[in-house]
Amino acid sequence: MRIGEASRVSGVSARSLRHYEDEGLIVPGRFGNGFRDYCQSTIDRVLVIRALLESGLPVRLIRELLPRLTDGSGPGTDAVGAEFLREVQSFRDRLAARIAVLSDQRAALDSYLREARRTEL
After folding, report:
1. Domain residue limits, the chain
2. Most buried of 9, 29, 57, 97, CB within 10 angstroms?
3. Rounded to an integer, what distance in angstroms lies between the CA atom of residue 100 and that of residue 97?
């Protein structure tokens, strides 16, 4: 299928599909005229990429993870897998720290709003 249909089927913009290709995450086939040709397995991969991006993983880690997802070996099966898991854990820890800061900021704003409402009455 061409890029417009692949975009419609996957729910991912044509621009994102081109970006995934530029990043080496997908390799669509090509028609004789040079247009991209997306098969179902590429669409399935796009859906996995989208889910991983939505979970917050950076493209660099997704690029490393994708071959393991498709060959069935899974992360953690060798030294590279162990390093990958450390990177994912580090990413998760940084995310947790950001969430903690945001939670503190939200609590401060909630407190401010409660106080402001009391003074309005």
Report:
1. 1-55, 75-121
2. 57
3. 5
Nearest to 38 by CA among 51, 26, 50: 26
- The distance from CA 13 to its chain's CA centroid, rounded to whole angstroms, is 14
Q: In Å, how far from its chain's centre is CA 79? A: 24
Residues 6+ apart with CB under 8 A from 100: none
Element (H, E) at 22: helix 14-22
Say what the pLDDT of residue 79 is.
56
Rounded to whole angstroms, how far apart are CA atoms 110 and 115?
Answer: 9
Structure tokens at 74: 């899974």
Write out the two tokens for 72.
């069935």
Entry pTM: 0.67
Tokens of 116: 């402001």
Domain boundaries 1-55, CATH class: mainly alpha
The pLDDT tens digits of the residues spanning 37-74 come to: 999 999 999 999 998 898 888 898 888 888 776 655 55
